[in-house]
């Protein structure tokens, strides 16, 4: 095996290891979370190439076509940790910002969430928008509301 093949194999193994550590930590916090890692495939030269599913865990920046989503109807008692656990069931979260009152620092009952991949954001939106109700909301039975530039563009068509 050449040096470049050794290097590619090492990077592939490091990616798998990082994904395993990340998924193990999520499993402790989110027992319903499942990680779908595909087996590596080989390119035309017989070298292992990490699959797209693996790469989400190795990214340090979100995809250029990611979606920043506004989410409303969140209980004011929920903090970033609780929300992150819920959202990460659908993919790796890049940023999560709970909107707060400047004076009291109390939550305003909404947040912005950005996933590393557009696919994960759309998966979360499909699973939660007008479907999921969170306990502790003053408006009993109020379902989560998602709004994003993607949603706004679809509604104009």
TrEMBL record:
Q: Which Pfam families match?
A: RRM_1
Record bears the keyword Metal-binding: no
Domain RRM stretches: 67-151
- Keywords associated with the record: RNA-binding
**SUPFAM superfamilies assigned to the protein according to its UniProt record, in alphabetical order:** RNA-binding domain, RBD (SSF54928)
Entries under InterPro entries matching the protein? Nucleotide-bd_a/b_plait_sf, RBD_domain_sf, RRM_dom, SLIRP/GR-RBP-like
Q: Which GO terms describe its molecular function?
A: RNA binding
For this protein, the record's Gene3D superfamilies field holds: 3.30.70.330
- Identification of the protein by name: (Mediterranean fruit fly) hypothetical protein
């Amino acid at each position: 095996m050449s040096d470049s093949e050794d290097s590619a194999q090492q990077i592939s193994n490091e990616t798998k290891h990082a994904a395993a550590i990340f998924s193990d930590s999520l499993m402790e916090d989110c027992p319903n979370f499942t990680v779908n890692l595909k087996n590596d495939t080989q390119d035309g030269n017989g070298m292992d190439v990490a699959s797209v599913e693996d790469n989400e865990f190795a990214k340090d920046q979100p995809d250029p076509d990611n979606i920043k989503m506004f989410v409303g109807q969140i209980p004011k008692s929920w903090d970033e940790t609780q929300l992150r656990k819920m959202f990460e069931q659908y993919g790796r979260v890049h940023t999560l910002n709970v909107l707060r009152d400047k004076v009291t620092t109390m939550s305003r009952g909404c947040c912005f969430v950005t996933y590393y991949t557009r696919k994960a954001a759309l998966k979360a939106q499909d699973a939660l928008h007008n479907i999921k109700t969170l306990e502790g909301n003053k408006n009993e039975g109020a379902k989560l509301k998602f709004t994003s530039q993607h949603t706004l563009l679809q509604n104009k068509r």
